[in-house]
Design brief:
- The chain has 666 residues and is α+β, with helices and mostly antiparallel strands.
- It folds into three domains: 8-276, set domain protein methyltransferase, domain 1 (Alpha-Beta Complex), CATH 3.90.1410.10; 292-500, no CATH class; 502-642, no CATH class.
- It is built from 23 helices and 18 strands.
- The chain has a four-stranded antiparallel β-sheet, covered by helices on one side. The protein has a three-stranded antiparallel β-sheet with strand order 2-3-11.
- Helix 3 crosses helix 4, helix 18 (537-553) packs across helix 23 (624-637) and helix 20 runs antiparallel to helix 23 (624-637).
- The longest helix is centred in the middle third of the chain and has 31 residues, at 419-449.
- This is SET domain-containing protein.
- Residues 157-269 form the SET domain.
- One of its GO terms (molecular function) is protein-lysine N-methyltransferase activity.
Amino acid sequence: MASIAESPENRLQAHTDLLNWVISHGGFLADSVCIAHDDSRGVHMQVKRDWPSPISKDTRVVNTPLGVTMSYFNAIGYSSPKGSFSKHGIELPSSFIDAVGREETTAFFLMGQFLRGQDSFWYPYLRTLPQPGQMTTPLFFEEEDVDWIQGTGIPDASVQRFQTWDQKFDFCMERLEESGFQGLEEYTWDLYLWAWTIITSRAFSAKVLSSAVKQADLPEEGVSVLLPLIDLPNHRPLAKVEWRAGEEDIGMIMLEDISPGEEISNNYGPRNNEQLLMNYGFCISNNPTDYRIVKLGVKSDSPLGQAKARQAMMFPEATKNTDDHYYIFNVFYPLLAPEGPMEHSIISPALFNALTVMEGNDRERRDVDINESGISIMHKYGNGRSTLAALAQVSFELIAHIAMLRSTGEDLPDQPANLKQTFAKIYRDGQSTLDKTALVITSWTLARAREHRRGEGWEDIKALLAEHMSKIPPGYFPDETLSKIRVRILERPSLVPKNGELFRLMELFALLPAELQGPCGTYWAEHIASGPWATDPQVMFSLAISLVAITARSEQTRPMLSSRLTRWVDFLISEYPLDASNDQPESQGQQFLHALSANKERFIHGAAACGVTWLAESTEWMDAQWLQWACTVGDAERVLIPLEPLQVFVEDPAMAKQAALYVPRE
């Protein structure tokens, strides 16, 4: 089929011819509406500029008659008392249709109509579609175009789609060859790729044919319907529109007022830019419904994999939909649940809960709640660690993806060279901004968890937030984006209601009363932090935990301690068995601890000399059993968090991590 010449006049004329063709078969375009063209929007529908008033809500702007729709029902020549659909000259073998199914039948029927050229009933429609050489989805990218999507999720998705379609195409061609189909050589891979791209980018659900097809013959999925003229309007996120299936046609109804000269837009749903580029071949700058899909790669024998298996057994109907809603949202995402914690406004609940299970320790995973709607760790004393660990893991992933986009984009030209690259750049830039704004928010909660000086009052929060936001380089984000980040942080309560639950090593002593901190600090500096083991975090956290735990158990010092500290120590003792036996290979840190225990008397003498009398009098201090217990606690209760997460905004990060011990607030 000859493609439409690229001049705006020819494109507009072809669409005018399409309109006249649709009208001749009983279609309709409202008097207030016209087909127009400009460089930014291409051919589109708009309210006439000279129309005296806005078109109002519930205005029917266009009708497409059932007789000009194209679907599987045309390919099989469907007929019933409710309606009929003509094959219009394409006879696919029934053995082929039975073998390949509804979707492939539709694709080959569209290919056949395209090959008929001007003899096709749908020629006025087909000539307005992007032609095989004009498609802009990633499967049509050249090598130079692919460079613009490196570091994103699209290459893997494109390969997967290519392999799926390639296998289906080969199967279909084999079935056609077996049937002796004439003209088989014209049904090429390139044409098949074009047909499927047209279907994925333009087709509607079979529900639009409900008035003409018996309910028993109308499947819930697997039938795509092309609607000439109705598929002309461009996509606009959040446009308010409805399609209504009538007895003889399908109508497009506007559910909002539209002023003269304004574009009439369709709404493909809350598509992110990755979906738009993959399926439709375009992207939207500052797409409000943009989000990034995260793949966790859950192994079946992992704690989350096992929980998913139990959920499937308990609620088989609820788990038929295998799609995991693992998303990171952009800060302007408008379709959030009306209520919910702040962190879920940037990380989908399903992703966040999955990460808490993955990052939770054995103690927390004993509290996994599996129900029909999802899998999560129950909220109770001590389980906030998994929340902070999940936030830390998201932050690391965001930093890594920001760095990946930066490194894969270093050698790109300053400006795109064609439309494919232009859309790829929009997508790429959107991914980078999404990651960076999400990182500001996830690292905010982690910053609060590291804040031990301030309370949770409004003035405290404002001061801390100002400090956090000051780490963003001036001019890095538009003012509107900075404002939205603040709104996201402040508009909803956090999953972490209290500050100061993560402690670096030396910060643990701040949990002790002032009169105990001095002697402990002196003893620590002179006798603990001066040996060859002092660079091993496992050893040092074990010693600090053991010191604090014995202090909380001492009759001399326990009355002096805060209820927070004593409750935490009592909780740990109840949760972790005091058992020195361990069948696992010893780490270097555990070997250090055994060596220290062998010199127990020296450390007790040092404690007495520094005035840490309750340690000197304790039979538990430097005891092998207690050191092993403290090592187990430290390994389980630590959280690795980014050292300076927002540093990624000014330079490539070294992915520096810092270990912090989780001490819950009451």
